[in-house]
Amino acid sequence: MLRGAAAGAGAVGALGLLGSATATAAAPAAATTGVRTRSRRFAGKVVLITGGTSGIGEATARGFASAGAKVAFCGRRTERGRAVERDIRRSGGEATYLPADVRVPAEVKRFVDRSVERYGRLDIAFNNAGIQVQKPLHETSVAEWDDTTDTNARGVFLAMKYQIPHLLAGGGGQIIVNSSVGAVVGRPGLSLYQSSKQAVLALVKSAALEYGSRGVRVNAVLPGITDTAMIRPPGLDDATWERAKTALGKLNVDGLGTVADPEHIATAVLAMAGDEFGYLTGVALPVDGGIAAGRRMLLPES
Ligand SMILES: NC(=O)c1ccc[n+]([C@@H]2O[C@H](COP(=O)([O-])OP(=O)(O)OC[C@H]3O[C@@H](n4cnc5c(N)ncnc54)[C@H](OP(=O)(O)O)[C@@H]3O)[C@@H](O)[C@H]2O)c1
Questions:
Q1: Which residue of 10, 109, 169, 198 could cross-link 132, Cys pair, CB 3.0 to 4.6 Å?
Q2: What pLDDT score does 246 carry?
Q3: Which of 212, 223, 179, 222 lies closest to 280 in space, CA to CA?
Q4: Homologous superfamily of domain range 39-225+258-287
């Protein structure tokens, strides 16, 4: 399995399990077993993914490709993007990596337009690229605010802005945005991240109303804590990370075990994109082990 690079240590640090560092260095991504697909049910479909070079985006790219879709994905790490592309093709799938930074309008436009040029149309977009900064609000710099909102919120706006004309030209399609359960619950130390993730829910709901009559469905997925480089502190040994994941899993509903694998989220994205879910639009679907449902009441023992 390919290995990823980290964007932050938010969830772990937020729980105080491993300190509160904001990580930017490389950390291994989870070993994956792949999304289980029933068939080549996306054969002939063209899928665009922002941030497909690791984690949830990579798992979703692999999932769609193994279900027969032609997948174009972007990210800034060219070497890694090419390795993911190669790996998907070796497994018999069709994928193209195109470098693009979602903060830069011209790069997002080029990524979208070139993908459509290459594969002829656009059916499904998964706007997934994101970063996380974990800090107390008053210690968050204006530059960190700008970078996070430019990536997580403005980046989604730019992707949608350039994708929608292609979806309309093709008679419809769909957009799925990767938000976070953090959009609907608070978490100390993550106010910046959660704000950026809530902003995109407004884009999803309004766009669902705006484009529904022209055949475009727009939805969001809200992952819970997922084992990717985003939350795994760099340099952490596997045994410590396994213990941390077990502790983090306690935020889930009892019985759902540890944190999610990227494939749990990818499986939900593929399901939402399927024709079976053709009645679903304007929805923010938590795939979060029950975190959004609330917290168990702990009563004092009598
Ligand atoms: N892991 C979790 O617990 C969790 C929970 C809820 C939601 N999410 C969301 O899931 C999404 C994917 O994150 P992940 O957990 O899979 O972590 P990850 O492995 O760090 O993946 C992040 C992806 O976003 C891309 N990216 C970041 N900044 C970018 C930029 N400026 N331009 C283009 N691509 C960019 C990265 O590619 P490059 O580095 O190559 O640019 C990478 O492919 C994020 O939106 C995150 O907020 C994650």
A1: 10
A2: 92
A3: 212
A4: NAD(P)-binding Rossmann-like Domain (3.40.50.720)
